[in-house]
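Incident log, structure service

09:12 report received: a user says their structure output differs between two submissions of the same chain.
09:20 pulled the input from the user's history:
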Amino acid sequence: MALARSKEGRGSSHGRGGIVSEARTGKRFPLELPIKIHKDDSSSDSKGITGNLSAAGVYIRADAALEMGSPVEFEITLPPEVTGGKENVTIQCKGRVVRTDEAGNEGRGVACVIDSYEFVRNS
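09:34 re-ran on a clean worker, output below:
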């Protein structure tokens, strides 16, 4: 899976709550992948699952209480079926919370912009 930035997808999008106008960048992939959210104010990490993913952002379903505008660090694990490799690939990301949704059956929804990311080598 290439995580290259592009200018596709700008304009309006249809979310659960109707039409939302946002300037999205990059193609979104509807991938449900495990994610680990690192919290500064707690010694424990939160776990969740991605709803969709692009090079510029991610939608997360988790029970983590994240505030709008707050910085966030998280790890996404890409399985071999996604990467075409032989092992899981872990991506460490830093970003910001840009939208929160009310808690539902699958946990709280959080949209994050990814400001930076790096691939972690397995040792």
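09:41 both user submissions now match this output. Likely a transient worker issue. Closing.
09:42 reviewer note: The helical segments are 80-83. Residues 1-22 have pLDDT under 50 and may be disordered.
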